[in-house]
Amino acid sequence: MANTQTSLYVRTGLALVFMAFLLFVPAGTLAYWQAWVYWLLFGGIAAASIGYFSKRDPALLERRSSMREKEASQKCIMAAFIAAYYGLHAFAGLDRRFGWSTVPTWLVLVADLFFLLSFVLIFFVLRANSFASSTITVEKDQPVITTGPYALVRHPMYAASLPMLIFLPLALGTAWGLFFSALMIGLLVPRLLYEERFLRKNLPGYEAYCRQTRFRLLPGLW
Question: Which of 96, 200, 208, 211 has the fewest CB atoms below 10 angstroms from its CB?
Answer without folding.
Answer: 211
